[in-house]
Every structure is written in C-alpha cells, then in structure tokens.
Design brief:
By secondary structure, the protein is mainly alpha-helical. It has one domain.
Length: 125
C-alpha cells in the first residue's frame, strides 16, 4: 500500500478507525506468528514425550518379567519351607499337621464363614 493510499484511507474513515484497523492487523499477525511457532514447539514436545514413554514402557515390561519370576521363586521357596516344616512336625510326632496347601481364596472363604457363625459385634445370630 502506498503512502498516498494510506493517507486517503485515514482521511475517509478517520484516525480512530484507521488505528483500530491497524491494531487489529497487528494482533492478527502476532497471533498467527505465535500459533505457528507454538505449534512447531508443541509438536517437538509431543515427539519427545512419545519417545520417553516408549522407553519407559520397554523398561516396565522388563521389570514386569523380573517381578513375575521373583514371585514364582518366592512361591517355590514358601512351598519348600512349609513342606520341610510339616515333615519336621511329622517326625517329631505331632498329631495335627497344619493345612498349608489351601489357597488364600479358600482360607478367606473359611474365615468369612467363621465370621458369619460368630455374628455381628460378638453377638450370636
């Protein structure tokens, strides 16, 4: 736009309207520039987050496998210990041997039945 065209525009619409239009243009250009630069930065940040997430997920999968193998080893060790304990009690001549082969679910069900038999707050039902 030439300076004479700008002068003519200001003369026809007035200084306040011309300044409002100029401010509007500056704001539009500034927002366009900000969203463009922020968009590229956001894209870069998203890619970095995705890379880090992938790395962490791989490590979590490895740790998951390690935890499962450790739990299995602990269960085997627990069974061996309980078997040795039961064998020792049997050799010592104990009449009642512990029932250690019940699962936790069976133990919980048995305890819940005992709680039902006792009743609420120690009162007989």
């Amino acid at each position: 736009m030439s300076p004479t065209a700008v002068g003519k525009f200001i003369e026809t619409v007035g200084v306040p309207v011309a300044m409002a239009v100029a401010c509007g243009f500056v704001v539009w250009w500034l927002l366009k520039w900000l969203t463009g630069s922020l968009g590229t930065q956001i894209g870069e940040i998203k890619q970095e987050i995705k890379d880090e997430t992938d790395t962490v997920q791989v490590e979590i999968r490895q740790l998951h496998g390690i935890i499962i193998s450790l739990i299995d080893r602990i269960r085997v060790l627990e069974r061996n210990t309980l078997l040795a304990h039961t064998t020792m009690l049997g050799q010592l001549g104990c009449k009642e041997l512990p029932v250690w082969y019940e699962t936790r679910k069976e133990k919980i069900a048995e305890l819940q039945e005992q709680i039902k038999d006792i009743g609420r707050n120690g009162e007989a039902s």
